[in-house]
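Hi V.,

You were right to ask for the full record rather than a summary. Here it is.
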Amino acid sequence: MHCPLGRCCIVSVGLGVLWLLFTLDVPKRVEDDQARMAVKVQVAALPSLRGFGEASEAAGSSALAQGSSGFGMHTRLPATVSKRRAQVGAALPTAGAYTPLRGGKRERPGVREPAPRPLTPPLASPAWLTVGISSRPRPGPEPSGLLHTLLSLFRATSKVEQKRLTVLVHLAGADPAWLGETVLHISSLFSPQILAGQLLLIHAPPDAYPPAGAGREPCSEQNVDHAFLMSSASKLSEFFLLLEDNAFCAPNFISHVQWKVDTLRSQPWVFLEFANLGVLGKLFRNGDLPTLAHFLLLFYREKPLNRLLAHFRVLLAQKDPILCTPFLFYHRATYYPLNDRQEASGAYRKSPYAPDNPPAAAFTDMKVFEVHFPWEAYTLDESFFWTHNVSAGSHLTVVLNQPADLRRVQVLTGTVVDGKCALEKGQVELGYGPEGMPQRCSSFVLLGRLLEGQLDQEVVPRSMGYQVSCVRLLANANQTGGLIVRHIYLWEEHARDAGHLG
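Predicted structure:
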């Protein structure tokens, strides 16, 4: 009796051990299989940059992934965001000729229509805001300020805000070397944003543009660039914010934009303006983007982009622009050498959008502290002049080394985001007749009064801008607390056309 009972105990223990080993081994195998599957998916999802720009576009061996838009765009997107391309609406008709295809479809000559390549499931919900940027190569060692703009954009947004944000960049132009280098730099600097689906890059091939000699001026290329950009962004989010590739963004701008949208929710508008420079900082509803893209393609040769946008706004019954202050976006002034000889001599050519700010000295009778000085308000970087407890009649005056013909003056006071420490009551004056040592102007003429601490005004009549020697910011009332003078920007009349050196 003891032997059969002992054998039964041994068999039971053995079966229990085998069952335990089996239950522990199966989950481990499943986890190993899942890990191997995840690695395979990640390897397949990350496109390689090797050989980018070397293969010809005709061979179709570029490292940029094929896009799904009917414009024949080539899109470099990771696996986590490639499905968004399939959500973009059908392509808008372009201004070029079309040829019939079988099945009643039409296609532009020489433009391929690649099929979408979804690698991941669709996103649970689109972003609240898409920031769109179109960039082209420019002459000089620093072809564009795109990288600086992207750095400013992501640094100005918190982790929570970035979850509601998609940045769409259109790399326009036919230079494969610039395209490859730009994609390489963006991929190395912003790989977390790319993998998270927060940064998308698109490229429209050259044959999608009007042929040379058919009204293909810089402004027409810019219009077509932005038509592609807006069409691709039409279903990515609820709102679309247009920036330029040389912009500086205020901190937490998304929260301020959303607050303004909520404030104006009951009012009809076509687009809001969070800057007053060119096309920078304009906010659209994404539902209007297909119509706007079509509009730009129809009239791409008629007007520059900023004037077409203004005309589009009027056509949709928004007569006056809606400026949202304080402004959240500004142009970043960039300088680069013209050539080796001018680089050795210290001569630089500036971006065509940047102010000129000819050589000058800055003086003030306000209190000066050891941290911020008057001349910092006249620099082209992000430094500023700070003072405290301003009295009526106090001034900050810029005295030019040589009289200049000015066409535009911009004075910005207060903080970038909330406008604190702005000059509440003040005016800007132009001075003439320099005299004395140190120099000062013998007479001044009122240019304009500050509105919410800011002035951006063309010099009218033009004769008033000739031979200006001083620009003076004058306080009209006592003001307690701090005062920040961020920028005093000057544009010369002939500097841009003559290729001003400064």
